Amino acid sequence: MNKTLLLFLSTILLVACSAKESKQEVEVQQLQKILTQQSIQLLDVRTPQETANGIIKTAQIADFKQGEVVEKATAIFKKDSPLYVYCYSGGRSSKAAEQLTAAGFTKVYNVIGGIKAWQAAGFPLQPTGKMKPIDPAEVTAFKKSLEGEKIQAVNFYATWCATCKKNKPLLNEIAPAYQNITLRNIDIDQANSVYQYLKLQAVPVLIIYKNGQEINRLNGALSAEAIKEAFAAAA
Questions:
Q1: pTM
Q2: Same domain assignment for residues 10 and 54
Q3: Where is the Rhodanese domain (predicted)?
Q4: Pick the catalytic residue: 164, 202, 203, 205?
């Protein structure tokens, strides 16, 4: 093999391996222990709607969906010090960690399971002070819309949510086969008070109501089988 080509391939491999090694992962239990022992660089890459419900103490915020992670992190943090990144469940923070590594951060830790795992472990959140006041009229209108004997499947989604973009068309396709179930799609950015009232932590969330009462709740990505099973059980 040509020596120049061999050297080029070796360099590419070395860079790739270095990048891979610089992005690491940490469990929420480890993160909590580290936080009690020292001050660290911590970044929350969730949306304003999500962070309004609370953040991990000392975390800075940069919305991954708005593409502001690298810019904000570069302005706030030191690139040669460990940086811990989290989101709701670990997906966005993993991608953010890759972006930060490519931008020159030498040691980036993705928090496995994100805020979902953090809360499941019983660890507290710190209020951000940015939560919008709940509009009682919006909540009242939502409750009234659930009245009656008809079964309603309410799909809470956001236009910026990748998983929502997969769930929504699937729900729209399946729902017509269940004539006694009404499917409603609600954009949380247009119904923030309802989002807070229901204490939703992230989207997508499918909530099924019967006679105005919640009878089932499904979070995250849904398969056709899971949707059909939930609809059949409600019917």
A1: 0.57
A2: yes
A3: 26-124
A4: 164
